[in-house]
Write a structure and sequence with these properties.
With 388 residues, this protein is α/β, with parallel strands linked by helices. It contains 16 helices and 12 strands. It has 2 domains: 124 residues, Aspartate Aminotransferase, domain 1, CATH 3.90.1150.10; 229 residues, Aspartate Aminotransferase, domain 2 (3-Layer(aba) Sandwich). The strands form 3 sheets. The protein has a 7-stranded mixed β-sheet with strand order 2-8-7-6-5-3-4, with helices on both faces. It is globular, with a radius of gyration of 21 Å.
Length: 388
C-alpha cells in the first residue's frame, strides 16, 4: 500500500486562512488577516501599468532590479548615516518576505541545530525550521507589554543554538524592540556562533515617537544579521508579494544560492513599479507611521465605551484586545468563534502564534489597516458585546 511521510505533518491550514474562510461563510466583518481594504496609491498602480506596457515582463535579474536595490540601500542609510551598504552585494529583492525568511533558515540552519523563537511568533518560522531537521526553541514573551525575559534566552543558548529570530515591530502584539533590547541581545550572543534573523517587515509602521532599530544598525550584529523587509506592508500591496533581504556579502551569497532555486527571481513589472514610485513619491514612507497611527487611534477611540481592554500597539497595523471582562471562561479560539457567530466579526486568536500558550491568555488580534467606515462598523459591533 502506498504511504507517505510528510516532513511537517502537523502544520495544517494556517489560522489566517481558517478565519478568513469563517468570515466569508458567515458574511462577517473580517479584521483577521493583515491586509488593507483600501486602494494602493493611484500613482503606484499607474506605475505598474506603465511597467507592463513598456515591456518589463520578462525575467528580471535574480537578485532584483538594481535600481530598487539601490533604493533599499538608501532607505537604510538615510535612517543610519553610519551604515554602508553595497546594493550589488548586500541587497536582494525577493518574492515576498515569507520566502526570504524560509531561504535564510534553509541557508544557515542544519539538521540537529536549534533556533530560538519568541512567542507569540509568526507561523511560518517553526515549519521552516522543522524542514531542515532542526528544533525550534520557543520562549514566551512577557505580557502585557510582550517583553523578552533575557534570563530565559541565556538559559536556552547552548552549543546547538544556530539562530535567533527577532521580529520588530512585532506581529501580532505591536511591541517594538528598544535600543536596550538589542544591547541585551548583543551581550548575550557576542561569544556564540549565532546568526540573527531579523524580521522587520513593519519597519515603517512605528507610533508615538518610538524609534525602529534594525539589527544591522549595530556594528556588533552587522556581520551576523540577516534583515527581512516587505514592500507589500509599506505600500498597501500585500498581494504583490515583494520583499527584500539585507545582509553582508558573506551571508548574502549562501542566501542567494538557496533563493535562486526557491524562486529564482521576483516579478519584473512589480519591481519596476515600486522603483518608479519610490523615486517619484519619497514622502509616502515618511508619512506612513502617522497614517497608521491615526487609524490605530481611531479604532481605539471607538472602543472606549466597550468592555475590552488593551495596551496600545507601538507598531504594525495590528491591535490586541483583552476580552476577559466579556467572556472570561472562553479560550481565545472559542471567543473568535463566538464573535463570528454571534456578532459577525472575525479576529485572530493569539494562541495561534504560540507553541505553548499561557492558560490565562485572553487576547485577540485585530487588523486596523482598514477604511474608517470599516473600523467604525467594527467598533460599533465590539462595543455591543455585553459583560459575561
Amino acid at each position: 500500500m502506498f504511504q507517505i511521510s510528510p516532513k511537517v505533518p502537523h502544520t495544517g491550514t494556517t489560522i489566517f486562512s481558517t478565519m478568513s474562510a469563517l468570515a466569508q461563510r458567515l458574511n462577517a466583518l473580517n479584521l483577521s488577516q493583515g491586509f488593507p481594504d483600501f486602494s494602493a496609491p493611484s500613482a503606484l498602480i499607474q506605475a505598474l501599468h506603465d511597467a507592463t506596457t513598456q515591456g518589463y515582463n520578462q525575467y528580471p535579474p535574480g537578485d532584483g532590479l538594481l535600481g530598487l536595490r539601490e533604493q533599499v540601500s538608501t532607505l537604510f542609510t538615510q535612517r543610519n548615516p553610519l551604515l554602508t551598504l553595497d546594493p550589488q552585494n548586500n541587497v536582494t529583492i525577493t518574492s515576498g518576505a515569507t520566502i526570504a525568511i524560509h531561504c535564510a533558515i534553509q541557508a544557515f540552519v542544519h539538521a540537529g541545530d536549534e533556533v530560538i523563537l519568541f512567542d507569540p511568533s509568526y507561523d511560518s518560522y517553526a515549519p521552516s525550521i522543522a524542514l531542515v531537521g532542526a528544533t525550534a526553541v520557543h520562549i514566551n514573551l512577557q505580557a502585557p507589554h510582550f517583553e523578552v525575559d533575557w534570563q530565559q534566552v541565556v538559559d536556552a543558548i547552548n552549543h546547538k543554538t544556530r539562530m535567533i529570530i527577532v521580529n520588530t515591530p512585532h506581529n501580532p502584539t505591536g511591541a517594538v524592540w528598544s535600543k536596550q533590547d538589542w544591547l541585551n541581545l548583543i551581550k548575550i550572543i557576542e561569544n556564540h556562533n549565532i546568526i540573527v534573523l531579523s524580521d522587520e517587515v513593519y519597519e515603517h509602521l512605528v507610533f508615538d515617537q518610538e524609534k525602529h532599530y534594525s539589527a544591522i544598525d549595530f556594528p556588533e550584529l552587522r556581520e551576523r544579521s540577516i534583515v527581512i523587509g516587505s514592500f507589500g506592508k509599506s505600500f498597501h500591496v500585500t498581494g504583490w508579494k515583494t520583499g527584500y533581504c539585507v545582509a553582508t556579502t558573506q551571508l548574502m551569497q549562501p542566501f542567494r544560492q538557496i533563493y535562486q532555486f526557491a524562486s529564482f527571481c521576483g516579478v519584473a513589472p512589480v519591481q519596476m513599479a515600486l522603483h518608479q514610485f519610490i523615486q517619484q513619491h519619497p514622502a509616502h514612507l515618511a508619512q506612513l507611521s502617522a497614517f497608521y497611527q491615526a487609524k490605530r487611534d481611531f479604532f481605539l477611540a471607538g472602543l472606549k465605551s466597550s468592555h475590552f481592554t488593551w495596551t496600545a500597539s507601538q507598531g504594525t497595523y495590528f491591535q490586541t484586545l483583552d476580552y476577559t471582562k466579556i467572556q472570561p471562561k472562553l479560550n481565545d479560539v472559542q471567543m473568535c468563534q463566538y464573535l463570528a457567530e454571534q456578532h459577525k466579526i472575525v479576529a485572530i486568536p493569539l494562541s495561534a502564534f504560540y507553541k505553548n500558550p499561557p492558560s490565562s491568555l485572553r487576547l485577540l488580534r485585530f487588523c486596523f489597516a482598514k477604511q474608517d467606515a470599516t473600523l467604525s462598523k467594527a467598533t460599533h459591533i465590539l462595543s455591543a458585546c455585553e459583560l459575561a
